[in-house]
Design a protein that fits this description.
Number of strands of chain A: 9
Oligomer: homodimer
Low-confidence stretches of chain A: none
Strand content of chain A: 5-15%
Largest interface: A-B, 33 and 33 residues
Largest sheet of chain A: 9 strands, parallel
Mean pLDDT of chain A: 98
Distance between the termini of chain A: 11 Å
Shape of chain A: globular
Structural class of chain A: alpha/beta
Helix content of chain A: 40-55%
Order of helices and strands of chain A: EHEHHEEHEHEHEHHEHEHH
Protein backbone atom coordinates (compact mmCIF):
# COMPACT_ATOMS: atom_id res chain seq x y z
CA UNK A 1 0.00 0.00 0.00
CA UNK A 2 1.36 3.40 -0.94
CA UNK A 3 2.51 5.76 1.80
CA UNK A 4 0.64 9.03 1.32
CA UNK A 5 2.17 10.88 4.26
CA UNK A 6 4.22 13.91 3.27
CA UNK A 7 3.88 13.54 -0.48
CA UNK A 8 1.07 15.42 -2.17
CA UNK A 9 1.85 14.39 -5.73
CA UNK A 10 -0.90 11.74 -5.66
CA UNK A 11 -3.50 14.05 -4.10
CA UNK A 12 -6.11 15.51 -6.41
CA UNK A 13 -8.72 18.10 -5.50
CA UNK A 14 -12.05 17.82 -7.26
CA UNK A 15 -13.21 21.33 -8.04
CA UNK A 16 -16.61 20.59 -6.50
CA UNK A 17 -14.92 20.57 -3.09
CA UNK A 18 -14.30 24.32 -3.41
CA UNK A 19 -16.94 25.30 -5.92
CA UNK A 20 -18.42 28.00 -3.71
CA UNK A 21 -15.12 29.52 -2.59
CA UNK A 22 -13.04 29.10 -5.76
CA UNK A 23 -15.50 28.80 -8.63
CA UNK A 24 -12.97 30.07 -11.16
CA UNK A 25 -10.41 27.64 -12.47
CA UNK A 26 -7.34 29.94 -12.26
CA UNK A 27 -7.84 30.47 -8.53
CA UNK A 28 -8.25 26.74 -7.91
CA UNK A 29 -5.16 25.96 -9.96
CA UNK A 30 -3.12 28.52 -8.05
CA UNK A 31 -4.31 27.37 -4.62
CA UNK A 32 -3.52 23.74 -5.36
CA UNK A 33 -0.20 24.34 -7.13
CA UNK A 34 1.25 26.52 -4.39
CA UNK A 35 0.65 23.73 -1.87
CA UNK A 36 2.32 21.08 -3.99
CA UNK A 37 -0.94 19.23 -4.64
CA UNK A 38 -0.42 17.02 -7.65
CA UNK A 39 -3.69 17.19 -9.53
CA UNK A 40 -7.15 18.65 -9.91
CA UNK A 41 -10.41 17.41 -11.36
CA UNK A 42 -12.17 20.35 -13.03
CA UNK A 43 -15.78 20.58 -14.13
CA UNK A 44 -16.82 21.38 -17.67
CA UNK A 45 -18.45 24.72 -16.89
CA UNK A 46 -15.21 25.93 -15.31
CA UNK A 47 -13.10 24.92 -18.30
CA UNK A 48 -15.57 26.44 -20.73
CA UNK A 49 -15.70 29.68 -18.73
CA UNK A 50 -11.97 30.30 -19.11
CA UNK A 51 -11.74 28.72 -22.55
CA UNK A 52 -10.35 25.31 -23.41
CA UNK A 53 -6.93 26.38 -24.69
CA UNK A 54 -6.37 28.76 -21.79
CA UNK A 55 -7.44 26.16 -19.24
CA UNK A 56 -5.16 23.57 -20.78
CA UNK A 57 -2.20 25.97 -20.73
CA UNK A 58 -2.81 27.15 -17.15
CA UNK A 59 -3.07 23.58 -15.84
CA UNK A 60 0.09 22.57 -17.69
CA UNK A 61 2.04 25.66 -16.64
CA UNK A 62 1.12 24.99 -13.01
CA UNK A 63 2.48 21.46 -13.31
CA UNK A 64 -0.82 19.89 -12.34
CA UNK A 65 -2.19 16.59 -13.58
CA UNK A 66 -5.92 16.15 -14.27
CA UNK A 67 -7.18 13.05 -12.45
CA UNK A 68 -10.54 13.13 -14.21
CA UNK A 69 -12.81 15.44 -16.17
CA UNK A 70 -16.27 16.12 -14.71
CA UNK A 71 -18.27 14.98 -16.43
CA UNK A 72 -19.81 12.99 -19.22
CA UNK A 73 -22.90 10.83 -19.15
CA UNK A 74 -26.52 11.84 -18.51
CA UNK A 75 -27.44 9.83 -21.58
CA UNK A 76 -31.17 9.13 -21.02
CA UNK A 77 -33.70 11.46 -22.57
CA UNK A 78 -37.42 11.56 -23.17
CA UNK A 79 -37.12 11.67 -26.95
CA UNK A 80 -34.77 10.99 -29.85
CA UNK A 81 -33.68 14.60 -30.09
CA UNK A 82 -32.67 14.56 -26.43
CA UNK A 83 -30.68 11.39 -26.91
CA UNK A 84 -28.81 12.96 -29.83
CA UNK A 85 -28.00 16.10 -27.85
CA UNK A 86 -26.55 13.95 -25.08
CA UNK A 87 -24.38 11.99 -27.51
CA UNK A 88 -23.04 15.12 -29.15
CA UNK A 89 -22.33 16.61 -25.78
CA UNK A 90 -20.44 13.51 -24.66
CA UNK A 91 -18.26 13.53 -27.74
CA UNK A 92 -17.45 17.16 -27.03
CA UNK A 93 -16.63 16.25 -23.43
CA UNK A 94 -14.15 13.65 -24.64
CA UNK A 95 -12.44 16.22 -26.85
CA UNK A 96 -12.23 18.72 -24.01
CA UNK A 97 -10.80 16.08 -21.68
CA UNK A 98 -8.16 15.27 -24.27
CA UNK A 99 -7.25 18.94 -24.65
CA UNK A 100 -6.63 19.41 -20.93
CA UNK A 101 -4.77 16.10 -20.59
CA UNK A 102 -7.27 14.37 -18.31
CA UNK A 103 -6.65 10.81 -17.17
CA UNK A 104 -10.26 9.95 -17.95
CA UNK A 105 -13.77 11.31 -18.44
CA UNK A 106 -15.98 10.62 -15.43
CA UNK A 107 -19.26 9.14 -16.65
CA UNK A 108 -22.31 9.78 -14.47
CA UNK A 109 -24.89 7.69 -16.22
CA UNK A 110 -27.99 9.81 -15.82
CA UNK A 111 -31.37 8.45 -14.82
CA UNK A 112 -35.06 9.15 -15.38
CA UNK A 113 -35.35 12.14 -17.71
CA UNK A 114 -36.71 15.17 -15.88
CA UNK A 115 -36.27 13.61 -12.44
CA UNK A 116 -33.48 16.00 -11.50
CA UNK A 117 -35.97 18.83 -11.99
CA UNK A 118 -38.58 16.95 -9.96
CA UNK A 119 -40.61 16.12 -13.07
CA UNK A 120 -39.78 12.58 -14.21
CA UNK A 121 -41.06 11.95 -17.74
CA UNK A 122 -41.61 8.27 -16.90
CA UNK A 123 -40.62 5.55 -14.42
CA UNK A 124 -39.08 2.95 -16.71
CA UNK A 125 -35.70 2.27 -15.12
CA UNK A 126 -35.07 -0.59 -17.55
CA UNK A 127 -35.45 1.75 -20.50
CA UNK A 128 -33.03 4.34 -19.13
CA UNK A 129 -30.49 1.63 -18.36
CA UNK A 130 -30.68 0.56 -22.00
CA UNK A 131 -30.22 4.17 -23.10
CA UNK A 132 -27.17 4.46 -20.86
CA UNK A 133 -25.53 1.36 -22.33
CA UNK A 134 -26.29 2.59 -25.86
CA UNK A 135 -24.93 6.04 -24.99
CA UNK A 136 -21.71 4.69 -23.54
CA UNK A 137 -21.28 2.41 -26.55
CA UNK A 138 -21.65 5.30 -28.98
CA UNK A 139 -19.32 7.54 -26.99
CA UNK A 140 -16.76 4.79 -26.60
CA UNK A 141 -16.02 4.72 -30.32
CA UNK A 142 -15.15 8.39 -30.24
CA UNK A 143 -13.23 8.02 -26.96
CA UNK A 144 -11.13 5.17 -28.30
CA UNK A 145 -10.23 7.19 -31.37
CA UNK A 146 -9.23 10.07 -29.12
CA UNK A 147 -7.32 7.83 -26.70
CA UNK A 148 -9.41 9.11 -23.79
CA UNK A 149 -10.66 6.47 -21.29
CA UNK A 150 -14.25 6.62 -20.02
CA UNK A 151 -14.72 5.89 -16.31
CA UNK A 152 -18.23 4.84 -15.31
CA UNK A 153 -18.85 6.06 -11.77
CA UNK A 154 -21.57 4.11 -9.99
CA UNK A 155 -23.43 6.56 -7.74
CA UNK A 156 -25.04 5.73 -4.41
CA UNK A 157 -28.46 4.09 -4.86
CA UNK A 158 -30.07 7.09 -3.17
CA UNK A 159 -29.20 9.01 -6.36
CA UNK A 160 -30.55 6.26 -8.60
CA UNK A 161 -33.73 8.01 -9.71
CA UNK A 162 -32.36 11.40 -10.67
CA UNK A 163 -28.58 11.21 -11.28
CA UNK A 164 -27.35 7.74 -12.16
CA UNK A 165 -29.14 4.46 -12.76
CA UNK A 166 -25.83 2.61 -12.41
CA UNK A 167 -25.44 2.14 -8.65
CA UNK A 168 -23.07 -0.73 -8.02
CA UNK A 169 -19.55 -1.49 -9.12
CA UNK A 170 -20.77 -4.88 -10.30
CA UNK A 171 -23.31 -3.27 -12.63
CA UNK A 172 -20.70 -0.85 -13.98
CA UNK A 173 -18.23 -3.68 -14.60
CA UNK A 174 -20.91 -5.76 -16.31
CA UNK A 175 -21.33 -2.87 -18.76
CA UNK A 176 -17.57 -2.66 -19.26
CA UNK A 177 -17.47 -6.38 -20.05
CA UNK A 178 -20.32 -5.99 -22.49
CA UNK A 179 -18.96 -2.98 -24.36
CA UNK A 180 -15.23 -3.58 -24.14
CA UNK A 181 -14.92 -7.33 -23.68
CA UNK A 182 -11.17 -7.31 -24.06
CA UNK A 183 -10.83 -5.05 -21.01
CA UNK A 184 -8.57 -2.73 -22.98
CA UNK A 185 -8.89 0.06 -20.43
CA UNK A 186 -10.72 2.33 -22.87
CA UNK A 187 -13.74 1.82 -20.64
CA UNK A 188 -13.42 1.39 -16.89
CA UNK A 189 -14.75 2.58 -13.57
CA UNK A 190 -14.31 5.35 -11.03
CA UNK A 191 -14.53 4.03 -7.47
CA UNK A 192 -15.82 6.65 -5.03
CA UNK A 193 -15.87 5.49 -1.42
CA UNK A 194 -19.01 7.55 -0.74
CA UNK A 195 -21.01 5.66 -3.32
CA UNK A 196 -19.61 2.20 -2.71
CA UNK A 197 -18.56 1.73 0.95
CA UNK A 198 -21.80 -0.06 1.89
CA UNK A 199 -21.57 -2.67 -0.88
CA UNK A 200 -20.99 -6.19 0.47
CA UNK A 201 -19.49 -7.14 -2.89
CA UNK A 202 -17.03 -4.22 -3.02
CA UNK A 203 -13.85 -6.18 -2.37
CA UNK A 204 -14.63 -8.81 -4.97
CA UNK A 205 -15.64 -6.29 -7.61
CA UNK A 206 -12.58 -4.10 -7.05
CA UNK A 207 -10.42 -7.19 -7.56
CA UNK A 208 -12.44 -8.06 -10.67
CA UNK A 209 -11.81 -4.58 -12.12
CA UNK A 210 -8.06 -4.85 -11.81
CA UNK A 211 -5.47 -2.28 -12.93
CA UNK A 212 -6.85 -1.85 -16.45
CA UNK A 213 -10.37 -0.90 -15.39
CA UNK A 214 -9.68 1.04 -12.18
CA UNK A 215 -9.40 4.51 -13.69
CA UNK A 216 -10.10 6.80 -10.74
CA UNK A 217 -10.40 6.71 -6.94
CA UNK A 218 -12.40 9.33 -5.04
CA UNK A 219 -12.55 9.94 -1.30
CA UNK A 220 -14.65 11.79 1.26
CA UNK A 221 -16.63 10.29 4.15
CA UNK A 222 -20.14 9.16 5.16
CA UNK A 223 -21.52 11.11 8.11
CA UNK A 224 -23.93 9.75 10.71
CA UNK A 225 -26.43 11.22 10.57
CA UNK A 226 -26.44 12.26 6.90
CA UNK A 227 -28.85 15.17 6.57
CA UNK A 228 -29.05 15.61 2.81
CA UNK A 229 -28.92 13.19 -0.10
CA UNK A 230 -26.51 15.36 -2.09
CA UNK A 231 -24.61 17.98 -0.13
CA UNK A 232 -23.78 16.44 3.23
CA UNK A 233 -20.63 14.50 2.49
CA UNK A 234 -18.02 14.38 5.21
CA UNK A 235 -14.33 15.28 5.24
CA UNK A 236 -12.14 12.20 5.25
CA UNK A 237 -11.95 10.91 8.83
CA UNK A 238 -15.17 12.54 10.03
CA UNK A 239 -17.45 9.64 9.11
CA UNK A 240 -17.64 5.87 9.16
CA UNK A 241 -15.97 4.83 5.91
CA UNK A 242 -12.98 2.53 6.34
CA UNK A 243 -10.77 4.63 4.09
CA UNK A 244 -7.52 2.75 4.63
CA UNK A 245 -9.20 -0.60 4.10
CA UNK A 246 -10.81 0.45 0.82
CA UNK A 247 -7.65 2.08 -0.53
CA UNK A 248 -5.78 -1.10 0.33
CA UNK A 249 -8.28 -3.07 -1.77
CA UNK A 250 -7.97 -0.67 -4.69
CA UNK A 251 -4.19 -0.62 -4.63
CA UNK A 252 -3.97 -4.38 -4.16
CA UNK A 253 -6.00 -4.62 -7.37
CA UNK A 254 -3.33 -2.57 -9.12
CA UNK A 255 -4.55 1.02 -9.01
CA UNK A 256 -1.66 3.48 -9.22
CA UNK A 257 -3.45 6.76 -9.93
CA UNK A 258 -4.43 9.81 -7.91
CA UNK A 259 -6.53 9.95 -4.76
CA UNK A 260 -9.16 12.57 -5.47
CA UNK A 261 -10.95 14.43 -2.69
CA UNK A 262 -14.51 15.18 -3.82
CA UNK A 263 -16.57 16.66 -1.01
CA UNK A 264 -20.02 18.03 -1.75
CA UNK A 265 -20.73 19.70 1.56
CA UNK A 266 -22.71 22.73 2.65
CA UNK A 267 -20.52 22.76 5.75
CA UNK A 268 -17.16 22.81 3.97
CA UNK A 269 -18.43 25.23 1.31
CA UNK A 270 -19.02 27.66 4.16
CA UNK A 271 -15.36 27.52 5.30
CA UNK A 272 -12.43 29.48 3.82
CA UNK A 273 -10.68 27.78 0.89
CA UNK A 274 -7.33 27.79 2.71
CA UNK A 275 -8.84 25.96 5.65
CA UNK A 276 -10.53 23.35 3.45
CA UNK A 277 -7.34 22.64 1.53
CA UNK A 278 -5.26 22.46 4.71
CA UNK A 279 -7.70 19.99 6.26
CA UNK A 280 -7.82 17.94 3.05
CA UNK A 281 -4.03 17.71 3.07
CA UNK A 282 -3.86 16.82 6.76
CA UNK A 283 -6.46 14.08 6.40
CA UNK A 284 -4.87 12.82 3.20
CA UNK A 285 -1.61 12.45 5.10
CA UNK A 286 -3.14 10.69 8.09
CA UNK A 287 -6.43 8.86 7.49
CA UNK A 288 -6.92 8.34 3.74
CA UNK B 1 -51.10 -11.30 -10.99
CA UNK B 2 -53.71 -10.77 -8.32
CA UNK B 3 -56.43 -8.18 -8.85
CA UNK B 4 -56.36 -5.85 -5.83
CA UNK B 5 -59.18 -3.56 -6.95
CA UNK B 6 -62.14 -3.60 -4.62
CA UNK B 7 -60.89 -6.23 -2.20
CA UNK B 8 -59.06 -5.00 0.88
CA UNK B 9 -58.43 -8.38 2.46
CA UNK B 10 -54.84 -8.40 1.19
CA UNK B 11 -54.12 -4.84 2.27
CA UNK B 12 -52.12 -4.35 5.45
CA UNK B 13 -51.38 -1.06 7.16
CA UNK B 14 -48.05 -0.80 8.90
CA UNK B 15 -48.60 1.11 12.12
CA UNK B 16 -45.69 3.44 11.28
CA UNK B 17 -47.86 4.94 8.53
CA UNK B 18 -50.15 6.42 11.20
CA UNK B 19 -47.85 6.53 14.19
CA UNK B 20 -48.39 10.23 14.82
CA UNK B 21 -52.17 10.21 14.39
CA UNK B 22 -53.03 6.78 15.84
CA UNK B 23 -50.19 5.84 18.16
CA UNK B 24 -52.38 3.56 20.25
CA UNK B 25 -53.06 0.09 18.91
CA UNK B 26 -56.84 -0.02 19.68
CA UNK B 27 -57.48 3.08 17.57
CA UNK B 28 -55.45 1.70 14.67
CA UNK B 29 -57.24 -1.63 14.88
CA UNK B 30 -60.63 0.07 14.86
CA UNK B 31 -59.80 2.39 11.97
CA UNK B 32 -58.55 -0.47 9.81
CA UNK B 33 -61.25 -2.98 10.71
CA UNK B 34 -64.13 -0.63 10.01
CA UNK B 35 -62.83 -0.10 6.47
CA UNK B 36 -62.49 -3.81 5.77
CA UNK B 37 -58.70 -3.65 5.64
CA UNK B 38 -57.39 -7.18 6.09
CA UNK B 39 -54.30 -6.77 8.24
CA UNK B 40 -52.02 -4.55 10.25
CA UNK B 41 -48.32 -4.64 11.11
CA UNK B 42 -47.90 -3.35 14.66
CA UNK B 43 -44.72 -2.22 16.38
CA UNK B 44 -43.47 -3.72 19.62
CA UNK B 45 -43.89 -0.60 21.73
CA UNK B 46 -47.55 -0.44 20.76
CA UNK B 47 -48.19 -4.07 21.66
CA UNK B 48 -46.32 -3.71 24.92
CA UNK B 49 -48.23 -0.54 25.82
CA UNK B 50 -51.60 -2.27 25.69
CA UNK B 51 -50.29 -5.61 26.97
CA UNK B 52 -49.60 -8.69 24.89
CA UNK B 53 -52.74 -10.67 25.78
CA UNK B 54 -55.00 -7.68 25.27
CA UNK B 55 -53.38 -6.79 21.95
CA UNK B 56 -53.72 -10.35 20.74
CA UNK B 57 -57.41 -10.48 21.70
CA UNK B 58 -58.23 -7.09 20.16
CA UNK B 59 -56.58 -7.98 16.86
CA UNK B 60 -58.34 -11.32 16.77
CA UNK B 61 -61.72 -9.89 17.73
CA UNK B 62 -61.41 -7.32 14.96
CA UNK B 63 -60.79 -10.09 12.43
CA UNK B 64 -57.43 -8.66 11.40
CA UNK B 65 -54.39 -10.62 10.31
CA UNK B 66 -50.87 -9.51 11.28
CA UNK B 67 -48.71 -9.32 8.16
CA UNK B 68 -45.53 -8.84 10.18
CA UNK B 69 -44.29 -7.84 13.60
CA UNK B 70 -42.00 -4.80 13.80
CA UNK B 71 -39.37 -5.58 14.61
CA UNK B 72 -36.50 -7.84 15.58
CA UNK B 73 -32.85 -7.45 14.72
CA UNK B 74 -30.41 -4.71 15.74
CA UNK B 75 -27.98 -7.46 16.68
CA UNK B 76 -24.62 -5.62 16.62
CA UNK B 77 -23.28 -4.21 19.86
CA UNK B 78 -20.05 -2.75 21.16
CA UNK B 79 -19.54 -5.43 23.79
CA UNK B 80 -20.57 -8.95 24.81
CA UNK B 81 -23.21 -7.70 27.24
CA UNK B 82 -24.83 -5.69 24.46
CA UNK B 83 -24.86 -8.70 22.16
CA UNK B 84 -26.59 -10.78 24.86
CA UNK B 85 -29.22 -8.10 25.47
CA UNK B 86 -30.00 -8.06 21.75
CA UNK B 87 -30.35 -11.85 21.59
CA UNK B 88 -32.66 -11.96 24.61
CA UNK B 89 -34.72 -9.17 23.13
CA UNK B 90 -35.05 -11.00 19.83
CA UNK B 91 -36.24 -14.18 21.50
CA UNK B 92 -38.85 -12.11 23.34
CA UNK B 93 -39.87 -10.54 20.03
CA UNK B 94 -40.44 -13.97 18.54
CA UNK B 95 -42.66 -14.93 21.47
CA UNK B 96 -44.68 -11.74 21.17
CA UNK B 97 -45.10 -12.26 17.43
CA UNK B 98 -46.38 -15.76 18.10
CA UNK B 99 -48.86 -14.50 20.69
CA UNK B 100 -50.41 -11.98 18.29
CA UNK B 101 -50.44 -14.42 15.38
CA UNK B 102 -47.99 -12.59 13.15
CA UNK B 103 -47.02 -14.03 9.78
CA UNK B 104 -43.37 -13.27 10.52
CA UNK B 105 -40.97 -11.15 12.53
CA UNK B 106 -39.42 -8.38 10.47
CA UNK B 107 -35.65 -8.41 11.01
CA UNK B 108 -33.87 -5.08 10.61
CA UNK B 109 -30.27 -6.15 10.95
CA UNK B 110 -28.78 -3.24 12.81
CA UNK B 111 -25.48 -1.63 11.91
CA UNK B 112 -22.58 0.18 13.58
CA UNK B 113 -23.29 0.31 17.31
CA UNK B 114 -24.02 3.86 18.44
CA UNK B 115 -24.38 5.17 14.88
CA UNK B 116 -28.10 5.75 15.27
CA UNK B 117 -27.27 8.14 18.09
CA UNK B 118 -24.58 9.80 15.95
CA UNK B 119 -21.79 8.21 17.99
CA UNK B 120 -20.52 5.11 16.17
CA UNK B 121 -18.37 2.97 18.45
CA UNK B 122 -16.28 1.85 15.46
CA UNK B 123 -16.34 1.60 11.65
CA UNK B 124 -15.87 -2.13 11.13
CA UNK B 125 -18.73 -3.05 8.81
CA UNK B 126 -17.35 -6.57 8.40
CA UNK B 127 -17.53 -7.14 12.14
CA UNK B 128 -21.14 -6.00 12.44
CA UNK B 129 -22.13 -8.17 9.49
CA UNK B 130 -20.65 -11.15 11.31
CA UNK B 131 -22.57 -10.18 14.45
CA UNK B 132 -25.77 -9.97 12.43
CA UNK B 133 -25.32 -13.44 10.97
CA UNK B 134 -24.51 -14.84 14.43
CA UNK B 135 -27.53 -13.07 15.91
CA UNK B 136 -29.92 -14.36 13.27
CA UNK B 137 -28.50 -17.88 13.69
CA UNK B 138 -29.07 -17.79 17.44
CA UNK B 139 -32.58 -16.35 17.09
CA UNK B 140 -33.47 -18.81 14.36
CA UNK B 141 -33.26 -21.78 16.72
CA UNK B 142 -35.81 -20.16 19.01
CA UNK B 143 -37.95 -19.04 16.07
CA UNK B 144 -38.04 -22.52 14.58
CA UNK B 145 -39.14 -23.99 17.90
CA UNK B 146 -41.88 -21.37 18.11
CA UNK B 147 -42.92 -21.83 14.49
CA UNK B 148 -42.40 -18.14 13.79
CA UNK B 149 -40.61 -17.23 10.53
CA UNK B 150 -37.94 -14.53 10.52
CA UNK B 151 -37.98 -12.14 7.55
CA UNK B 152 -34.71 -10.32 6.89
CA UNK B 153 -35.56 -6.92 5.43
CA UNK B 154 -32.70 -5.41 3.45
CA UNK B 155 -32.82 -1.66 3.97
CA UNK B 156 -31.77 0.96 1.44
CA UNK B 157 -27.99 1.45 1.36
CA UNK B 158 -28.46 5.03 2.62
CA UNK B 159 -29.43 3.43 5.96
CA UNK B 160 -26.47 1.06 5.93
CA UNK B 161 -24.38 2.79 8.59
CA UNK B 162 -26.98 3.29 11.27
CA UNK B 163 -29.94 0.93 10.74
CA UNK B 164 -29.11 -2.15 8.71
CA UNK B 165 -25.86 -3.44 7.26
CA UNK B 166 -27.84 -5.82 5.01
CA UNK B 167 -28.77 -3.68 2.01
CA UNK B 168 -29.49 -5.94 -0.92
CA UNK B 169 -31.86 -8.82 -1.45
CA UNK B 170 -28.93 -10.86 -2.69
CA UNK B 171 -27.05 -10.37 0.58
CA UNK B 172 -30.15 -11.28 2.62
CA UNK B 173 -30.72 -14.42 0.57
CA UNK B 174 -27.06 -15.41 0.90
CA UNK B 175 -27.58 -15.32 4.67
CA UNK B 176 -30.76 -17.39 4.34
CA UNK B 177 -28.86 -19.97 2.31
CA UNK B 178 -26.10 -20.06 4.90
CA UNK B 179 -28.30 -20.40 7.97
CA UNK B 180 -31.23 -22.38 6.59
CA UNK B 181 -29.76 -24.23 3.62
CA UNK B 182 -32.86 -26.30 3.08
CA UNK B 183 -34.91 -23.17 2.44
CA UNK B 184 -37.54 -24.36 4.91
CA UNK B 185 -39.17 -20.95 5.14
CA UNK B 186 -38.19 -20.51 8.79
CA UNK B 187 -35.88 -17.78 7.54
CA UNK B 188 -36.76 -15.60 4.58
CA UNK B 189 -36.94 -12.04 3.38
CA UNK B 190 -39.21 -9.01 3.43
CA UNK B 191 -39.16 -7.16 0.11
CA UNK B 192 -39.88 -3.44 0.50
CA UNK B 193 -40.07 -1.56 -2.78
CA UNK B 194 -38.56 1.55 -1.16
CA UNK B 195 -35.38 -0.27 -0.23
CA UNK B 196 -35.01 -2.41 -3.34
CA UNK B 197 -36.47 -0.66 -6.41
CA UNK B 198 -33.07 0.61 -7.61
CA UNK B 199 -31.38 -2.81 -7.52
CA UNK B 200 -30.44 -4.05 -11.02
CA UNK B 201 -30.52 -7.62 -9.66
CA UNK B 202 -34.00 -7.32 -8.10
CA UNK B 203 -35.87 -9.49 -10.59
CA UNK B 204 -33.36 -12.31 -10.43
CA UNK B 205 -33.15 -12.26 -6.65
CA UNK B 206 -36.95 -12.22 -6.20
CA UNK B 207 -37.14 -15.28 -8.42
CA UNK B 208 -34.34 -16.89 -6.43
CA UNK B 209 -36.24 -16.32 -3.19
CA UNK B 210 -39.36 -18.09 -4.40
CA UNK B 211 -42.55 -18.72 -2.42
CA UNK B 212 -40.83 -20.23 0.62
CA UNK B 213 -38.55 -17.28 1.30
CA UNK B 214 -40.79 -14.37 0.26
CA UNK B 215 -42.39 -13.67 3.63
CA UNK B 216 -43.55 -10.07 3.32
CA UNK B 217 -44.08 -7.37 0.70
CA UNK B 218 -44.08 -3.67 1.60
CA UNK B 219 -45.07 -0.70 -0.54
CA UNK B 220 -44.76 3.07 -0.58
CA UNK B 221 -42.97 5.22 -3.18
CA UNK B 222 -39.68 7.02 -3.89
CA UNK B 223 -40.11 10.76 -4.31
CA UNK B 224 -37.98 13.00 -6.51
CA UNK B 225 -36.54 14.90 -4.85
CA UNK B 226 -36.25 12.95 -1.59
CA UNK B 227 -35.56 15.45 1.17
CA UNK B 228 -34.79 13.21 4.12
CA UNK B 229 -33.07 9.84 4.45
CA UNK B 230 -35.73 8.47 6.79
CA UNK B 231 -39.04 10.31 6.81
CA UNK B 232 -39.73 11.38 3.24
CA UNK B 233 -41.30 8.29 1.74
CA UNK B 234 -44.03 8.83 -0.79
CA UNK B 235 -47.60 7.54 -1.00
CA UNK B 236 -47.96 4.81 -3.61
CA UNK B 237 -48.25 6.48 -7.01
CA UNK B 238 -46.59 9.75 -6.01
CA UNK B 239 -43.05 8.67 -6.87
CA UNK B 240 -41.05 6.77 -9.47
CA UNK B 241 -41.26 3.17 -8.30
CA UNK B 242 -42.75 0.77 -10.83
CA UNK B 243 -45.16 -0.72 -8.31
CA UNK B 244 -47.11 -2.95 -10.69
CA UNK B 245 -43.94 -4.30 -12.25
CA UNK B 246 -42.37 -5.21 -8.91
CA UNK B 247 -45.54 -6.79 -7.53
CA UNK B 248 -45.77 -8.83 -10.72
CA UNK B 249 -42.24 -10.13 -10.07
CA UNK B 250 -43.02 -10.98 -6.47
CA UNK B 251 -46.26 -12.74 -7.32
CA UNK B 252 -44.72 -14.58 -10.27
CA UNK B 253 -42.19 -15.90 -7.76
CA UNK B 254 -45.05 -17.31 -5.72
CA UNK B 255 -45.80 -14.70 -3.05
CA UNK B 256 -49.41 -14.93 -1.85
CA UNK B 257 -49.35 -12.78 1.30
CA UNK B 258 -50.43 -9.27 2.19
CA UNK B 259 -49.40 -6.01 0.56
CA UNK B 260 -48.31 -3.81 3.44
CA UNK B 261 -48.31 -0.02 3.18
CA UNK B 262 -45.43 1.34 5.24
CA UNK B 263 -45.01 5.07 4.77
CA UNK B 264 -42.59 6.99 6.97
CA UNK B 265 -43.54 10.51 5.98
CA UNK B 266 -43.59 13.83 7.74
CA UNK B 267 -46.12 14.92 5.13
CA UNK B 268 -48.60 12.08 5.68
CA UNK B 269 -48.13 12.18 9.46
CA UNK B 270 -49.44 15.73 9.28
CA UNK B 271 -52.70 14.67 7.59
CA UNK B 272 -55.81 13.28 9.33
CA UNK B 273 -55.82 9.50 9.82
CA UNK B 274 -59.05 9.11 7.83
CA UNK B 275 -57.54 10.89 4.86
CA UNK B 276 -54.36 8.80 4.96
CA UNK B 277 -56.29 5.54 5.10
CA UNK B 278 -58.65 6.62 2.33
CA UNK B 279 -55.73 7.54 0.08
CA UNK B 280 -53.92 4.28 0.93
CA UNK B 281 -57.02 2.33 -0.08
CA UNK B 282 -57.54 4.30 -3.27
CA UNK B 283 -53.92 3.85 -4.35
CA UNK B 284 -53.95 0.18 -3.35
CA UNK B 285 -56.93 -0.29 -5.62
CA UNK B 286 -55.43 1.55 -8.57
CA UNK B 287 -51.63 1.77 -8.70
CA UNK B 288 -50.14 -0.85 -6.35
Amino acid sequence: MRDLAGDLSLLSINAATLRKQLPLLPSLIEACAKRGIGAIAPWRDQVQAVGLATAARQIKDAGLAVSGYCRGGFFPAADAAGLRVALNDNRKTVDEAKAIGAACVIIVAGALPGALEGKPAHKDIGLVRTQVVDGIAATLEHAKAAGMPLAIEPLHPMQGADRACINTLEHALDICDELDPGGSGALGVAVDVYHTWWDPKLAGQVARAGPELLLAYHVCDWLVPTRDLLNDRGMMGDGIIELRKIRALVEAAGYTGHVEAEIFSDHWWSRPADEVLDVCIARYNTVV
